[in-house]
Amino acid sequence: MRRTSFLVRFICIGVLLHIYVGLRIIPDLPVEPIGRWLAASWLVLSCLLIPLGMLARTIEQQPFADRAAWVGLLAMGFFSSLLVLTFARDLMLASLLTVDAIWPHAIALAEWRTGSAAAVPLLALLSTTVGLINARRRARVVTIEIPIDDLPRALEGFTIVQISDIHVGPTIKRRYVDAIVDAVNRLKPDLIAVTGDVVDGSVPQLSAHTQPLARLSARHGAYLVTGNHEYYAGADAWIEEFRRLGLHVLLNEHVVVEHDGARAVIAGVTDFSGGHFDPAHRSDPVAALHGAPGDVLIKVLLAHQPRSAEAAAEAGFTLQLSGHTHGGQFFPWNFFVRLQQPFTAGLARLNGLWVYTSRGTGYWGPPKRLGAPSEITRLRLMPGDGT
């Protein structure tokens, strides 16, 4: 019932936003009436395609479901840019009207109206095309050095490769995952961290496409924590499947890694929202350290959402690796992420805790990335300067 209510609200808001774009852009387009009718028809079609794209994973018939997802999610990405650019155009026209009121006839308002109306859909199409290329190419490797005070000499240069938010689903399939796994293995990491949101669908739908994860190879193994999307897709079934693939799933627990005579604690918590789906999966950084040896100074926490950081800092962790945010994925959503999460992307410091937030290795929803490139993150532990 709640899901249906959300969907109805989503569609209603979407229709209103399409009407806004239509009223603001179509009358000013420098085209013949037939062109305006075509533009209006596209907006009507977009109102239908976007919900279809969102619901495509509930459709069992293949390949129709995946094709519907592609069309609907591309339409969503295009309309998102169209909406933002329409709003920006309105702000620009309001400024020009103010200038015209102060200095009459100083600018050609009519030309600005028609020119900007034509520019909006063209720029939206350009941004969608560039965003699609960015999203579909394999994530780049980003190297980050983490300065840690009192780091044991044996752990200097200890390398963790992090992947996050792949979102295997209607538009991300086995070949995409294969390319990620190949790139990770080429880095020859000491340890691999998979920080949640691996999938967007059920085990029967996607197990063939997550199979490449079984090839992940690191000296001390690959460790995984759940993200919120695992809970949407059936977390218990996926946890069993990830373990079948050879991944070490950490559910509010830890392991002690011995590396050339030094030790480090690698812990993981369930997603920050996990307790809403299953009380037994309430995220608990303190529980994740229960029983850890007190003489091990280096404690790394895998936590899908950055907002686990406050509890992680209080629990005494050295480093937290997170994802979830996608770095905003594309403008303007990077600004909205900051309303929910303390960190959007990159390396940050919270009291004595280092927090690294990945922009994600795949994408969610529209196959589109602008200003927030996907990443495979190579993190190297390095001695701090003592400050």
Description:
The structure is a single chain. By secondary structure, the chain is α/β, with parallel strands linked by helices. The chain has two domains: 2-135, no CATH class; 140-383, Purple Acid Phosphatase, chain A, domain 2. Helix content is 44%, strand content 17%. A six-stranded mixed beta sheet has the order 1-12-2-3-4-5, covered by helices on one side. A hairpin with a 2-residue loop joins β6 (253-259) and β7 (262-268). The protein is elongated. The termini are far apart. The mean pLDDT is 94.
Blueprint (SSEs and pairs):
Blueprint: H1 2-25, H2 33-55, H3 64-102, H4 109-136, E1 140-148, E2 159-163, H5 174-186, E3 191-194, H6 203-210, E4 222-224, H7 228-232, H8 235-244, E5 248-249, E6 253-259, E7 262-268, H9 274-277, H10 285-288, E8 299-302, H11 309-315, E9 319-322, H12 333-337, E10 346-350, E11 353-357, E12 375-383
Helix pairs in contact: 1-2, 1-3, 2-3, 3-4
Characteristic terms for this protein:
2 domains, six-stranded mixed beta sheet, 387 residues, 44% helix, 12 helices, Purple Acid Phosphatase, chain A, domain 2, alpha/beta, single chain
